[in-house]
Amino acid sequence: xxxxxxxxxxxxxxxxxxxxxxxxxxxxxxxxxxxxxxxxxxxxxxxxxxxxxxxxxxxxxxxxxxxxxxxxxxxxxxxxxxxxxxxxxxxxxxxxxxxxxxxxxxxxxxxxxxxxxxxxxxxxxxxxxxxxxxxxxxxxxxxxxxxxxxxxxxxxxxxxxxxxxxxxxxxxxxxxxxxxxxxxxxxxxxxxxxxx
Length: 196
Prior knowledge:
Elements (H helix, E strand, L loop, with lengths): L11 E7 L8 E7 L17 H14 L2 E7 L1 H7 L1 H15 L6 E5 L11 E4 L7 H24 L5 H4 L5 H10 L18
Parallel strand pairs: 1-4, 4-5
Antiparallel strand pairs: 1-2, 2-3
Helix pairs in contact: 1-4, 2-3
């Protein structure tokens, strides 16, 4: 059962990212401010949901959230600053795009850099505990999947429309055969486990 609020009366924004472990493409973050009566029976950690469920929820969240925003940080920036810093930067960018400033930021995970002077609360597995973080996880995941599907048209041999550029065996074999693309994160171990 997801918890709708961390506090009683502060404006809370949930934030989460998608694509941190991928070998290519941007890392994407979403920030969401929800009304107190927000509810959807399917809402959970986006990784526990089917693609169809996530897509349905994306529309529902976007229609019913008070405010939401999505932001991304490119592979080039990821290589320059490292994936943790890039993930936090994407969260900051999403927060900065919200039409209202939150009074408390709820962050999925255990690492965050303060945004402005707004208090934050890190919550391990927050996407399976807090409604706003779960909603942010859905928006980040669906936005990134859509983006990778578009990039797959340009580079169909890597199967990004199916693996979203995560290190599947298919993706690693394609890198071994075709090399990297401008969208690959060169600071990552693209061939950590050479395919057999």
